[in-house]
Amino acid sequence: MNGTPDRYTVIGNPIAHSKSPEIHARFAAQTGQDMIYERVLAPLDGFAQTVQELIRQGVKGSNVTVPFKLEAYALANSLTERAKAAGAVNTLTFENGVIAGDNTDGIGLVNDIVRNAGVAITGRRVLLLGAGGAARGVLLPIMDQRPAELVIANRTVGKAEELAMQFAAHGPVSASGFGSLKKSFDIVINGTSASLADDLPPIEPSIFGDNAFAYDMMYGKAPTVFMRFAQRHGARVRDGLGMLVEQAAESFCIWRGVRPDTAPVYADLRAGLQAE
Length: 276
Ligand code: ATR
Known about the structure:
By secondary structure, the protein is α/β, with parallel strands linked by helices. The chain contains ten helices and twelve strands. The two termini are 35 Å apart.
C-alpha cells in the first residue's frame, strides 16, 4: 500500500463506547483497504462545525450516532430514499464538495434477520414495538421485504398512527396500542428504548405465534428483559449486535465498494461482550 490512507470517522456524544472503529478496522484488514477509522466526540452544539472541520481535513466519510442523526439528515445536501424515509442519517460521504446522507440501520436489521438468522420477512406477520427514531429508521427496509402485514405498536398510539400513515403507500401497515394487540405474529421486533432501562413494553405472551422470532434492536452482555420474556413464551430470540455489524458493513460498502464478511467480526464482538 502507498500514499496516505483514507480517513473515516464516527461522530457522536458520548463516543468512547463506540465499537465502530474496531468493526471497520476488521473490515479494512479483511478486504485489504488502506484506511483509518477514528472516533470523534462532537460538542452537543457543534455537530455541523465538526463535520466541516473533518471535511477540511480531507476525511472521506463519517458514521453518525446518538444524538446527531437528525442533524446529519438536515446537513446532508443529498439523501437516499431510505434516509428520507428514516428522517435520519447514520452515514455521510464527503465527495466533491457534496455531503451525501444515507441510513444503513434498517438494511442492517433486515440483513441480520434474513441472512444471519435465516428468518424470511416476506409474507410474514410482523410486529414492530416502538415508534421513535429507532423504529422509524428501519420501517422502509422492512416494508421493502413485503411482509404479509406490519403492525406498529407504541405506548403513545398517536406516534404509531403517524408512522403507519407515512408508510401506508409501501404496503399493509397499521398502528396499535400495546393493550389492543389481539393477534399473534411471526416476527416481533423491539424498537423501543425500554431495554435500556431494563424495562419491558406491556405486551401479552399471546403476541408470539407458533415458532415466532423475537428481535431486540438493543444488545448487551446478557439477554434483554424482552428477549427473556419472548423466550419464556416459546420464541426464538436474537439481540441487536448483528444489526450493529451489518449496518457498519453497509456503510463500508458505500464508501469502499467492497462487501466485508461480517460473520467473523460478529463472532469476535460477541466473545468480547461475554468477556466484559
Ligand atoms: P429512539 O431513538 O431510541 O427510538 P425515541 O425516539 O425517544 O428513542 O423513542 C423511544 C421509543 O421507545 C418510543 O417509541 C417510546 O414510546 P413513547 O413514544 O410512548 O414514548 C418507547 N419507550 C421508551 N421506554 C418505554 C417503556 N418503558 N415501555 C414502552 N415503550 C417505551
